[in-house]
Amino acid sequence: MTARRNFKRQVRARAAKTGESYTSALRHFRPTPSGDVMSEARNPRSVRLAAAQTLVREDPRNVEALRESGREVRALMRDAGAQGARLVHFPEGAICFPDKFVMSVDGPDVAGPADWDRCQWPVLQSELAAIAELARELRLWTVIASVHRLTEPNRPHNSLYVISDRSLPA
């Protein structure tokens, strides 16, 4: 005999009636704590994840656009933290997704070799540092993609930064 079979029968009946999964139906039978603390907070094996979407800016030469991207990311991090998220994930291009035509030495109309010296690297690095600092302050793991500068003669790479909730990356 299954333990709590009547309870499970009620959950299955709701799932069948509404078309939701057993897990979704089960949430309607469990009490929700008051306040911002969700049931996941009591379970160390459970993590609340926030997936955030930002505007895509294509020109890493544009200082104000890079700063606006950083402000937008940090605002979404604050929202995620306020909703109880422990990890927030941003898509590729959250800070900047360089367009091959923008970086082309041949033009904006021709995709030629890229001139990465035109990228505003100090601004990009300062925005990433501010994001890392806020991640530590909010105790929020942050996953964000960005262009990563390599040593010459290597070209920059699109990289995925995983920023801890406790410390700044080295």
Characterise the protein shown here.
With 170 residues, the chain is an alpha/beta fold. Helices cover 36% and strands 12% of the residues. The chain has five helices and four strands; from the N terminus they run H-H-E-H-E-H-H-E-E. It has a four-stranded mixed sheet with strand order 1-2-3-4. Strand 3 and strand 4 form a beta hairpin. Helix 3 packs parallel to helix 5. The chain is elongated, with a radius of gyration of 22 Å. The termini are far apart. About 3% of the residues have low confidence.
Question: Can you tag this structure with a few keywords?
Answer:
170 residues, 36% helix, single chain, alpha/beta, 4 strands, four-stranded mixed sheet
Q: Which percent range describes the beta-strand content?
A: 5-15%
Which structural class matches the secondary elements? alpha/beta
Total number of beta strands: 4
Give the averaged pLDDT, no decimals: 84
Relative helix content = 25-40%
In N-to-C order, the SSE pattern is: HHEHEHHEE
Question: If strands are numbered along the chain, what order do they take across the biggest sheet?
Answer: 1-2-3-4
> Which overall shape is indicated by the principal axes computed on the Cα atoms?
elongated
* Helical run tally: 5
Rg value: 22 Å
Task: Give the CA-CA distance, first to last residue.
Answer: 55 Å
Q: Describe the main β-sheet briefly.
A: 4 strands, mixed
Low-pLDDT ranges = 34-38
